[in-house]
Amino acid sequence: MARVSADSVLSEMDQRLVAALQWDGRVTAERAAHALGLSPATVRRRLQALGADGTVRVVISPVARPRNGGSAGALFLRIRVLRGKLDTIVAALAAREDIPFIDITTSGDEIFAVARTEPGSRDPLIFRQLPSTQAVTSLETATILHVFRLTSEWRHQVLAVAERAALSPADPAPEATASPGPYGVDTDALEQALIDALAPDARLTAAALAARTGHPESTVRRRLAQLTTQGRLITQVLVEPRRLGLPIEAKLLLHVPPDHLATAGRALADHPSVHGAFATSGPSNLHAAAYFPDLAALYGFLSHDLTGLGITHIETALVSHAAKRTPAPVQPQR
After folding, report:
1. What confidence tens digit (pLDDT) does each residue in 9-32 have?
2. Residue 258, Cα to own-chain centre: how many angstroms?
């Protein structure tokens, strides 16, 4: 049997299953089968295969949406390095728990990363460690001021409206989004233990979670249902976009006048290609990231979809590969 390339595009059925997981990371085989018109046995077999070879992972989102779209304390880093030193710097950044995302651009000497940090703090990484590294030739930072779209909220556009509705969880209770904490409320010891256990594999069963946390399975089931109902169990599907037929990823740095910023940000968030959109500090006050099937689609996005939004300048960087997508959740700020 011929070996399947790691970059080969998944079958239509598998792409639909990936999309189902994006709508509900803990969806059961039975519910997914009912929504997609497949047999439970087929869904169970394909989900097991996709997970077994690492093609698809469902994790707790490493970044939760802050209340009212505000900042949870994160910086965009744009780092240029000496040629030949890229791998060394990437490895050092990837080893840090406070760096959940690292992308390498096609220029071969440029890194885009996200760093979790206290807003307004003199982070040692930014103020001492990176500037003192001779391999780093330049460092630009931008504080995330407002979240329009997170990667965990992006959906692969392969499901019908009725299928999406059948898979979508109920809207979270209003009180769940009004209190402090990384997922909208303060967490107790049990909830934090469950989130920690689910971080690398959000599809663990209640029985497995009970064994790992030492709590009765009935208690775990009840608390999982509560977390889900209140919108505090935010999952993210990790899959190479090339496997979804989307080999082009672009980072967009945009300049937008203040009176157009909110409108442009919302328009980006609503676009099916955009998997991240943020208002930031710095000269590029709107950052976005998007997936495309080819360069022609990217050109159409830039030349047509972004018109009329008041954008005065766009810088586009293409991603060669994602070096890190950590499953660790944001920890509560003390």
Report:
1. 999 999 999 999 999 999 999 999
2. 26
Cα 60 off chain centre by:
10
Q: Other C-beta atoms within 10 Å of 327: how many?
A: 18
Q: Which of 233, 236, 152 is nearest to 192 (CA)?
A: 233
Can you spell out the DSSP letters for 8-56? SPPPHHHHHHHHHHHH-TT--HHHHHHHHT--HHHHHHHHHHHHHTTSE
Contact residues for 56 (Cβ-Cβ < 8 A; gap 6+): 18, 21, 47, 50, 237, 238, 239
Per-residue pLDDT, averaged over 287-294, amounts to: 98
Which residue, 327, 183, 329, 234, is CA-closest to 24? 234
What's residue 98's pLDDT? 87
Whose tokens are 């495309």? That residue is: 292
> By percentage, how much of the chain surpasses pLDDT 70?
85
Q: CA torsion, points 270, 275, 277, 283, in degrees to nearest 10?
A: -130
Could you tell me what percentage of the chain is helix, strand and coil, using 3-state DSSP and rounding each to the nearest 5? 35, 25, 40
Distance CA 260, CA 251 (A): 20
Q: Is the pLDDT of residue 78 over 80?
A: yes
Structure tokens at 297: 């689609």
> Please, which residues have CB within 8 angstroms of residue 26's CB and are 6 or more apart in sequence?
58, 202, 203, 228, 233, 235
